[in-house]
Amino acid sequence: IRRFDKMADPHVSNGDHVIANEDKLYADAQNYWAKVSPTIDGMLGGFANISPTDINGSKSFLRPLLKSSGGKVVPKHALDCGSGIGRITKRLLLPIFETVDMVEQDRHFCDSAREFIGSESNRVINIFCSGLQNFIPSKKTYDVIWCQWVLGHLEDEDLIGFFARCRQALCPGGVIVVKENTLAEGKKTFDDSDSSYTRSKEELTVCMCKAGLKVVCVQKQKDFPKSLYPVYMFALH
Question: Which residues are listed for S-adenosyl-L-methionine binding in this entry (predicted)?
Answer without folding.
Answer: 82, 87, 132-133, 148
